[in-house]
Design brief:
The structure holds two protein chains of two kinds. Chain A is α/β, with parallel strands linked by helices. Chain A is built from nine helices and 20 strands. Chain A has a ten-stranded mixed β-sheet with strand order 2-1-5-8-10-12-14-16-18-20, with helices on one face. The longest helix of chain A is centred in the last third of the chain and has 18 residues. Chain B is an alpha/beta fold. In chain B, α4 crosses α6 and α6 packs parallel to α7. In chain B, 44% of the residues are buried. Classes of the chains: A alpha/beta, B alpha/beta.
């Protein structure tokens, strides 16, 4: 392969530079976490297709670029940010530019007392006890090459803490915008969302770029839903088609908590999402839904795992993909029902539409059941748009493009309609219209 | 003349189903095409609507003087051709209103007309839904999803009413309908009849023709029209059965 760089040595060297840039912060407690991570990173190897978890996901092209983890300043106007806001919705907004929190572009509205919404860098500086307790406890470094990379270079990200009994009514919209120009940069947002007992919060992680540039986003999100908490999480990916995006989300659910996640993605050159949720106690609900729309030679991979460790929990997972051109999709969804987890209800489904003969989908829904009194189902379909339905629409005077768009909207509709924010649903419908009804 | 079918031959997966159909339809007329199962009735309807699996091997179809077979399915619809499906397709996630709004506006665009605004469109839907006694709640439901057989057929006639075609083909719209639904569907079709439009009613049973009175009846058998006549031909068929045609086909007319 041309110009392949030794990515490991490259980042090990970069770490020295990074340490220098930290100045006084080097002596902080947290810096030990970084140092542990970099030594872990040195032990691990870059994932290849020989690795079961990366079997269909060839990320070797990532090694062609030396993405710099150094902070790169960029000017982003509020007009640019406005392009990614949802109409008719006033809400709290956090903006990160090239991985760094931008107070000027952010705003907080109607935040209940005690709720913290801000930057992780700030919280780290203040030795926030919630951060100390939770950061890095769920997204462990073991065996995750890119997690160790993130942990070693941890600098900033979104931090949200909703104390017991607090309800944040309006969604919190977090925009991560990369403006790298010709520089190849690595941004590593490190997000921590902690929802206390009986609390409620809706969080939108929105990864965007208005450039066609090459950059690398390596993000980690840890979410804690304490007893009876309700957490709605939406991740939107509207990045450059040449970007690399590797992300991991770890969700820890306590008794009777309710977590829902929607991943809506336009993909990138390569995007990989590891979403893992764990039930630590009884009576909880977890929803993992996703919709990915990719084209050209994009590669999208969703690896999910729902761990039913305890009885009486329900999980619902539905991922839908729409593939054009020579794009490639991977879905690997694992539902683990442990011996203890009686009365589990688990539903998992992956449906994919291939709009071209050259698109490829690899899907692997997996159920591992060790309990005997459970209700579980899983399935996958890969197909084309329904020709009968298309003919029916055309016979009513609707042209090829409009008929295709209608059927794609219809295919995506059950994932879109399960999102609870109307303004966001409209935004997504618009995205689909723009993409498929030109 | 509105429609002229000349020596139409068509194949499905290499098997010839239509073996030389000739038919002339003038504006203001209702034609019934009857025939036993497998005679090619539905194939004829699908070929006229432009279904791709059907390969026309010979003959031509003139519609308003245009070569119908050269037009795409959507352009046929925009030119005023409508097919009421024998088996209306269920489309989950697409509401009846959305389908019709897109269809009406695409047709208007094709004809160089302004798009209908939402208010005008909704009042059009309301007015036409009464014609087939279709409850308003069906407008927001997904196209045909979970509809009963009768509701699906009424929905077809409802769509026909909204799109207001010049030439409609009803493909076994009566099959599976109880007498009330049959009356409602037939009543809708009769009300839509004008001097400018024409309808072909494809049916297996004479019963529908008690409600929709045809000007002409044609009997299709083994891919050809073997008998044509007035409405009394339907009654004769009912009485004698299709065996009469089968044994008699040597004396094919037209």
């Amino acid at each position: 392969m041309e110009n392949k760089i030794d990515i490991k040595n490259y980042y090990l060297n970069q770490f020295d530079e990074f340490e220098k840039s930290l100045n006084g912060e080097k002596s902080s407690d947290f810096h030990k976490v970084r140092k542990d991570a970099i030594s872990k990173f040195a032990e691990l190897t870059f994932p290849t297709q020989k690795d079961e978890e990366w079997k269909y996901t060839n990320i070797s092209s990532l090694q062609k670029h030396n993405f710099s983890p150094a902070a790169v300043k960029a000017n982003v106007s509020s007009e640019t940010i406005n392009k990614f806001l949802f109409d008719k919705m006033e809400h709290s907004l956090l903006v990160f530019v090239n991985g760094n929190f931008s107070p000027e572009l952010s705003k907080l509205i109607d935040i209940p007392k005690g709720v913290v919404i801000g930057s992780l860098a700030e919280a780290l500086k203040n030795n926030n006890p919630v951060v100390k307790k939770h950061l890095g406890k769920y997204a462990e470094n073991e065996n995750y090459f890119f997690t160790t990379l993130s942990s070693a270079f941890t600098k900033d990200g979104a931090f949200i803490y909703v104390p017991d009994g607090k309800v944040v009514e309006d969604p919190i919209h977090i925009i991560f915008i990369t403006k790298s120009g010709s520089e190849k940069i690595l941004t590593q947002p490190r997000n921590l969302f902690v929802a206390g007992k009986n609390s409620q919060v809706t969080i939108i992680e929105h990864y965007v770029s208005d450039e066609d540039s090459v950059y690398f986003t390596n993000s980690i999100t840890e979410i804690v839903a304490d007893e009876n908490a309700i957490v709605d999480h939406i991740k939107l990916q509207e990045e450059s088609n040449k970007a690399f995006h590797i992300a991991r989300m770890e969700v820890d659910q306590e008794r009777s908590s309710n977590f829902s996640s929607h991943l809506i993605s336009h993909g990138a050159e390569i995007s990989r999402n590891d979403f893992n949720a764990r039930f630590n106690d009884e009576g909880s609900e977890c929803m993992l839904n996703g919709l990915f729309m990719i084209g050209d030679e994009q590669l999208f991979d969703a690896h999910t795992m729902i761990d039913h460790a305890k009885p009486h929990c329900n999980s619902h997972e539905h991922y839908k993909g729409i593939l054009q051109d020579k794009s490639k999709g991977v879905f690997n969804g694992k539902v683990m029902v442990r011996q203890d987890a009686q009365k589990t209800n688990a539903f998992q489904q992956n449906n994919t539409i291939l709009l071209s003969n050259d698109a490829v989908m690899n899907t692997k829904p997996q159920l591992e059941i060790f309990a005997d009194d459970v209700k579980c189902s899983h399935g996958a379909t890969i197909g084309k748009l329904n020709d009968e339905a298309k003919f029916y629409l055309k016979s009513r005077g609707i042209g090829e493009d409009a008929a295709t768009a209608i059927l794609i909207h219809a295919f995506a509709s059950d994932v879109i309609t399960s999102i609870k924010i109307p303004a966001l649903r409209d935004y997504l419908e618009e995205i689909i219209t723009k993409r498929f009804n030109q | 003349m509105l429609l002229e079918i000349k020596n139409l031959h068509a194949n499905v997966e290499g098997t010839e189903i239509l073996k030389g159909i000739n038919l002339k339809v003038n504006a203001g007329e209702v034609h019934a095409i009857m025939g036993p199962n497998g005679s090619g009735k539905s194939t004829l309807a699908s070929v006229l609507a432009g279904k791709e699996e059907y390969e026309v091997t010979a003959g031509e179809v003139l519609y308003n003087g245009k070569n119908l077979l050269e037009l795409s399915t959507e352009d046929r619809a925009r030119e005023g051709v409508f097919l009421a499906f024998q088996y209306p397709v269920e489309i989950p996630g697409v509401s009846n209103t959305n389908l019709l709004k897109t269809a009406v506006n695409e047709i208007r665009k094709y004809r160089g007309e302004e798009e209908l605004d939402s208010m005008d469109f909704l009042s059009l839907l309301k007015e036409k839904s009464k014609l087939v006694e279709l409850d308003q709640k069906f407008l927001s439901r997904a196209v045909n999803e979970g509809f009963s057989g009768g509701e699906k057929k009424r929905n077809e006639i409802f769509q026909m009413a909204v799109l207001n075609p010049t030439f409609a083909i009803l493909d076994e719209t009566d099959s599976g309908l109880d007498i009330d639904a049959l009356r409602i569907v037939a009543n809708g079709v009769n009300k839509l009849k004008t001097k400018e439009n024409a309808t072909i009613v494809v049916t297996h049973y004479q019963r529908l023709l008690d409600y929709i009175i045809p000007d002409f009846v044609h009997v299709l058998y083994k891919g050809k029209i073997v008998k044509s006549g007035g409405k009394e031909l339907a009654l004769e068929l009912e009485e004698k059965g299709y065996d009469w045609v089968k044994s008699d086909k040597a004396e094919a007319v037209v």
